[in-house]
Amino acid sequence: MKAVVIGAAGYAGGELLRLLLQHPDIERVEATSRSQAGKPLGDVHPAVAELTDARFSATAPADAARGADVVFLALEHGESSKVAGDILAQGPALVVDLAADCRVIDQALHARFYGPHPAPDVAAQFVYGLADIEGERLRGARAIAAPGCFATAAQLALYPLARLGLETAPALFAVTGSSGAGAQPKPTTHHPARAHNLFAYSVLGHRHEAEMLGMWRRWSGDERAAARLITHSGPFVRGIHLTLHARVPAGSAARINDCVRSAYHGRPFVRVLDRPPELTHVVGTNYAHLHAVGSDEGDEIVVLAVIDNLVKGAAGQALQAMNLALGLPETAGLRGGSVFPC
Ligand SMILES: NC(=O)c1ccc[n+]([C@@H]2O[C@H](COP(=O)([O-])OP(=O)(O)OC[C@H]3O[C@@H](n4cnc5c(N)ncnc54)[C@H](OP(=O)(O)O)[C@@H]3O)[C@@H](O)[C@H]2O)c1
User: What 3 state SS string does the chain have?
Assistant: First the structure.
């Protein structure tokens, strides 16, 4: 199969290239970039230098998609909406968008967090690709919106709670590494501002809350169900550490561990641990590590989750969704372990 990555010079694009170049069913990979056209891929992404001599092309997105089996969009927010319709018209078996453009199915939620959608007809062609939960339901999908990085960690922690019932809306406190902000330097990713620092951002309004709320309402069967995501920037490069806290009906907290374990029974990339997970143990991998505890009093729960924002939260999840959509083994090209210490 031939895969094309549009916007391949960014961090998510680079991770897609690293994984695609080692995927057993992908024979050809093309990478486009406006800023890096003509440069070897390995000059921009050292992780692929030993895997390919190919160079970035400046081919326009729809032209690059012609003849491709699968097209990945790793563009800045808002750009996919402009090009996805023309790409779909080229007839690839699958388009996977890593941006937020087509993730939020509820248009009212989309408008609340992002404003009116510029291309609702295009967005309507996409299904939400939370691979660890959707699994075989993604089989045959032609256009998949890959979830956001915070939203992935949040939803993996939230999903099992729909079976438990809650007394209060859950609060999800999450800390991300600086690669979550992309390859272009920003004041908040500058080393002196970030290296020994921790700060909240988008307080009471992070955009990933939109997709998280949409799915939480579907799972809980309550269209008014609430959940709050509180996001922070941490002093590390990769990964997200998330802590979910909620009150539960008296006496039900002891069930939380069984709920989480049964929700992910047989799922290849979600591990439920007997101890709090550590960020570095998943960095570079497509695995999510979870841990759940109920209070001794029986009315309070905590679920902890760690993922790599660029793999499980972006490129790895996108490939997992591709595997599922195209009927390939779900784990193809994704079994790699972490690098520790890192
Ligand atoms: N970083 C993460 O942890 C993460 C996780 C999940 C999802 N995502 C999503 O994935 C997308 C990419 O994120 P990123 O972190 O990789 O951002 P990034 O490092 O800033 O890269 C974005 C890339 O998009 C390219 N681009 C933008 N508009 C384009 C266009 N019209 N045509 C061709 N190329 C275009 C840019 O390359 P050129 O200027 O060279 O074309 C740039 O390299 C975003 O939508 C982001 O929200 C990121």
Answer: CEEEEECCCCHHHHHHHHHHCCCCCCCEEEEECCCCCCCEHHHHCHHHCCCCCCECECCCHHHHHCCCCEEEECCCCCHHHHHHHHHHHCCCCEEEECCCCCCCCCHHHHHHHHCCCCCHHHHCCCEECCHHHHHHHHCCCCEEECCCHHHHHHHHHHHHHHHCCCCCCCEEEEEECHHHHCCCCCCCCCHHHHCCCCEEECCCCCCHHHHHHHHHHHHHCCCCCCCEEEEEECCCCCCEEEEEEEECCCCCHHHHHHHHHHHCCCCCCEEECCCCCCHHHCCCCCCEEEEEEECCCCCEEEEEEEECCCHHHHHHHHHHHHHHHCCCCCCCCCCCCCCCCC
